[in-house]
Amino acid sequence: MKAFFTPFKVGIVVLIGIAAFVYMFGAVREGIDAGAAGYRVYADFRDVTGLVKKSRVSIAGISVGEIHKIELVGDEARVWVLVNTPLRSDATVAKRQASLLGDAYLELTPGQMGRPLKEGDEITHVIYDAAPADLINEMKTIADNVREITQSLREVVSTDEGQAKLAAILDNVAQMTERVNRLVAENSPKIDQVVDHVVNVSAEADTFARDFRRDAKVILEDARAVTGEVRNIIGRSKGDVEEGFEGVKGAVRRLQTALDKMDATLDHTTSIARKIDEGQGTIGKLVNEDRLIDNVNEIVDETGRFVKQITRLQTIVGLRSEYYLGATAVKNYFSVALQPRPDKYYLIQLIDDPRGRVTFRERVINTTESDEDPVIREQETITEDRFRFSLQFAKRFYFVTGRIGIIENTGGLGVDVHLFDDSLQLSSDIFAFDENVNPRLKAWASYTFFTHLFIAAGIDDVWNDELTDFFIGAEIRFNDEDLKALFTAAPSVSF
Hints:
Blueprint lengths: L6 H21 L11 E7 L10 E4 L2 E12 L2 E8 L8 E6 L6 E6 L15 E3 L4 H27 L1 H77 L4 H38 L2 H8 L1 H23 L1 E11 L4 E13 L2 E9 L5 E9 L8 E9 L3 E11 L2 E8 L2 E10 L4 E8 L8 E9 L4 E8 L8 E11 H10 L6
Parallel strand pairs: 2-6, 5-7
Antiparallel strand pairs: 1-4, 2-3, 3-4, 5-6, 8-9, 8-19, 9-10, 10-13, 11-12, 13-14, 14-15, 15-16, 16-17, 17-18, 18-19
Helix pairs in contact: 2-3, 3-4, 4-5
C-alpha cells in the first residue's frame, strides 16, 4: 500500500505550523497596543515607587489601560497612561499597593461633571495613599511613646515617694466621698423639717378657723336669745311688771355670759396674734422670716422660666433634594432647625454631595531651560469625601435673615430675603474660601407651594467656570407640632 505521508507533505505541514506560530506570536502581546483604539493622558506624582511601564490601570477593579511611559519633570514623576475609556476633567487617579512586596498599580475614577479629556490632557485630581514605610514609621513612633509612658509610670509607682503620692490621692478621694455623704445626711433633716413646718401651719390654720366658727355660732345663738327675751319683756310689760323685771334680769345675765364668752374668744385671738407677731410656732416663723418665702419664690421663678423656655422651643425637620442639570446628579439635605424664638434659630444639616469636596491648588515653577517657558504653572485638584456637615446660627432683622457658621465643612456666610409674607425666599451662601481658585457662591430662590412643600431653583459655584451648574429642587418641612399631629392621626397597630 502506498504511504499517505510523504516527505514532501510532511515538510509542507511543518512550514504551515511554523508560519501559524509566528503569526500568533506576533498577534498576542500583553497590554494595549499603541495603535489600538485609545488615547494617552498623564498625571504628575510625587512618588512612583512600585510603578513600571506596562503596569495596569483599572476602574473598579477592571483593567482599562496600562502605563505607557514614566518620565521625570522637575522634582516630580510624570506618568503617561494609555486608556480606552472616556474620562472627564474631574477624574481622579490614585496609586494603590497591589501587594506587600511593593508593586503598585493605578486606579481611576472617570469623573462626572467635567469636560471630556483628549489626547495629551492632564489628570489633575491626584490622590495619595499612605506608603507602607510611613505606616511602619508611625507605628514605631506610637510604640516609642507607649514605652516612654510605661517607663514613666513604672518609675513613679516603683519608688516609695510615688507610692506615697498614690496613697495620698486615694485618701483625698475617700475624704471627699465622706464629705459628700455627710453633706447629704445633714441637709436631709432640714428638708424634712421644712415639710413638717408646712404641714403644721396648715393644721394650725384649720384649728383656728374651726374654733372661730364655733365661737361665732355661740355668739349668734346668744344674741338670738337676747332678742327673744327683750321681745317677751315688751309683751309682758302690759300685764305683770314684776315678771317683766325678772325677765329683764335674766336677759341681762345671759347677755353678760355672752359678753364673757366673747371676751374669752378675743383674749384667745389676741394671744394667737401675739405669738405670731413674736415669731413663735410655725405660722410665726413663716410670717416673720423672709428667707423661706424668698427661697420658695426663687424656686418658683426659676422653674417657671425653665418651663417657659422648654415649651417655647420649636424643632423644624426638613428633607431637600437638588437636581444638577449639567452634572445630572442629585444632592440631598437632611436638616434640623432648633428655634427658641421667632427671630433666631440654630440650623444643623447633613449633606450628601455627589461631587464631594473638590480642592484646587496652583503651583508656579521657574525653570532656566531655554527650550521651555521660564514660568510653568501647574494646577492640582483633589476630591475627598461626599458627605458634608453644616452648623449655622441665624438671626432675622425685619425681612432679612443673616446666617454664619460652618457651611458644608467650611466656614461661610449666608443671607435670606423674605418676600410676599415669607412665601418667596431669595437666598445666597458663600463658603469654601480655600478649596478652589475662587470661593464657592451659591444663589437660589424657593417658593412655598403648599403648607409643607417648597420648590427651589438656582445656580451653584458661580465664580468657578468649570464647576458652575444650574439646579432645581424641592423640600418637605415639618415642625414638632406638625409631627405630633401626624403621629397622633396615624393608625396604630392593635393586637
